[in-house]
Amino acid sequence: MILVNTNFISGKEIDTLGVVKGSTIQSKHLGKDFMSGLKTIVGGEIKAYTDMMNEARAIATKRMVEEAEALGADGVINIRYTTSAIMQGAAEVMVYGTAVKIK
């Protein structure tokens, strides 16, 4: 599966199949959330949240790819990610793009 954030696949002729998306809502457990709150006092990267968001992007991307594969796609173009805070310590990650078939 070819995944790109451009509206084309270099050197390939494509047919558009439709919009595909994947999403997930992730949260960290209370202990990590509490420790992350303490980190805001001294500053710096909050690794627990970095890890959480990386995991969420991977899950959302996998779900988008599965939806594209169900359409018979060879790739997804114009990929975009969005993130929304759902509640304290929880975030939704959504990824979407256009499923395409290479001619």
TrEMBL record:
The superkingdom listed in its UniProt entry is Bacteria
Q: Which InterPro entries match?
A: UPF0145_dom_sf (IPR035439), UPF0145_YbjQ-like (IPR002765)
Looking up Gene3D superfamilies in the UniProt record yields: Hypothetical protein apc22750. Chain B
Instruction: List all membrane-crossing ranges.
Output: none
Q: Which family does it belong to?
A: Belongs to the UPF0145 family.
Official protein name in the record = UPF0145 protein OW763_11120
Species: Clostridium aestuarii
